Amino acid sequence: MGQWIDLTGSDGFVVPAWVAEPVGPARGTLVVLQEIFGVNAHIRDVTERWARVGYLAVAPALFARVQADVDLGYGAADMAQAKSLKAAAEALPDAGVLVDIQAAIDYADARSAGPVGVVGFCWGGLLAWRAACTVPGLAAAVCYYGGGMTNQVEKARTPRCPVLAHFGRLDAFISQASVQQFAAAQPPVQVYLYDADHGFHCEQRGAYDAAAAASAHARTLAFFARHLGAEPV
Which residues belong to the active site? Predict the structure, then answer.
């Protein structure tokens, strides 16, 4: 079972984070980056799933700078609020929430002698990509349907660590043309497409696709095992 802790960024801001610890020694450390719905029940569960397969996992609350205690569902009203919160977070000055991601990476690094990975979903997928390109201390990054990461600005970035990206062919938010262009612009990035919609990893969403989620998770496990130096489960 996970618990809330406080992390302090380089600018002194305190960001809450959900931390889940494995039973026994950690086989690696992961930073889990939320969707636009906050560190909600789904993201907390994802963090704990990683702990169950042996990783120390930490999920910083990336809306904390614009609103505290965000924990949304997936209905229409929640979606509208989530989009507004994302817009506010994206408008933050300077490095914005990347400072909080760095605080989570530093925490994970301090808790383990091994390398640190990051995995993000939706907005968190975009942030995982940005972190892979700009934030020190990462050994690997996995992006699930990162909204915005295939645009002109994002696809021009240069990752500092190995990156794996999952996208759905039925995703109305991320065009297939932009995914293909991203893959062409980023040959080192492993890009996989699934016959699924945006949010296919989340059991709480109507777009959940068990087969796609299982396939993407297996690839993610193998990717982290390879780049974080942990044995595959």
Answer: 122, 171, 198
